[in-house]
Amino acid sequence: MNVFxxxxxxxPVLFMSFGILGVVISLCxxxxxxxxxxxxxxxxxxxx
Length: 48
Known about the structure:
Layout: H1 2-10, H2 12-41
């Protein structure tokens, strides 16, 4: 396991790919919760 962490921090391509993947996943989670919150707080228009 120690070899994995040493290779992970010494290889910039692997480090950046996991970093960018983490950013993309966190943005997806943020927008999912954002839209769910907005939909649940939305007022339903009443049609007569």
